[in-house]
Amino acid sequence: MIKLQSNNTNCKYYIQKCSVTVVEGKDSVSHINRIITSNISNISDLEYCESLICDANGKIIDAIEISNISEQLLILGIPRSAGKTRELIVSGIHWNEEVKIMNGDGALSIITIFGDNIEEIKKILGEDNVNQKIGIWKEVNNYYTLNIDLKLDAQVNILIQNNSIEEFTKTIILQGVKLSDKDTWDIHRIRNGILSEQEYNQGFLPAELALDKIVDLKKGCYPGQEIHARLESRGKVSKKIMRYSTDSQIDIGTYKSDTGRKIRITSNVNGKGLAVVSVKEKNLINLDDKISLITEEL
Questions:
Q1: CATH architecture observed for domain 10-234
Q2: CB 37 within 8 A of CB 224
Q3: End-to-end CA distance of the chain
Q4: Are strands 48-54 and 60-69 parallel, antiparallel or unpaired?
Q5: pTM of the prediction?
Q6: At 181, phi and psi to the nearest 5?
Q7: pLDDT digits (tens, 9 = 90+) for 84-118
Q8: Which residues are within 8 A (CB) of 269 and not within 5 positions of it... i.e. 6 or more apart?
Q9: Three-state DSSP class for 179?
Q10: What CA–CA distance (Å, rounded) separates 68 from 75?
């Protein structure tokens, strides 16, 4: 229960757009583990992890968040990739496996509360309603909270049934939390290096998006594993994602630098955004239409 109190806060909330797939059955963990890039063989109750689903060429099909809740795997992904992901999950079930797949779209949602520091968010939700430990859900009445690890700011995700969203948001609005527009959310995620479907749906390899940490090459085969292993052993990744800033007007799209190399602008809000560039580019990139980008690692 959220305790109402006077709170002048800069925190915002944003309702995420994501697909929801529920997987259950005694073989669900081992089955999903064969499909994804990370290793969830020992996932514990209420544990959360990030992973990817890739094609045979190693390119990203879907970026997913997997949680083990009440003996079910809850898989949140990119909406436009949901069909491919569910088809892959269903087609890979062995005849002797006990695995059941359910479409949860429209039943559950993620509400994200973000701000300058975690203590401010705890005041809004209640000190005991947010797990201090990163990556473990905390059950609170009719919803769950998850403390997200960010480099600069604080963020807590709320897993909630859709029919409870209105009551929940009314309560946090009374606490001073305002609904974020997409630009404000994008500024937050760009600042903290949070990728979105604007990055994931461009046919990139995990290493090109600095996602090596959620690729486990030692766990065994999964779609794209051979390509990922070959790239790691040869060190031949040619592109990387960078955060940029510019004083010029620039739109999402493909550009060329003055060296002739391709620059893919994937996100942009008020001259700040994310771009995938050649590893040979320097931190100052001049585009062929007289736009300059100052770039930095995520």
A1: 2-Layer Sandwich (3.30)
A2: yes
A3: 36
A4: antiparallel
A5: 0.92
A6: -80, 170
A7: 999 999 988 888 999 999 999 999 999 999 999 99
A8: 183, 186, 187, 190
A9: strand
A10: 9
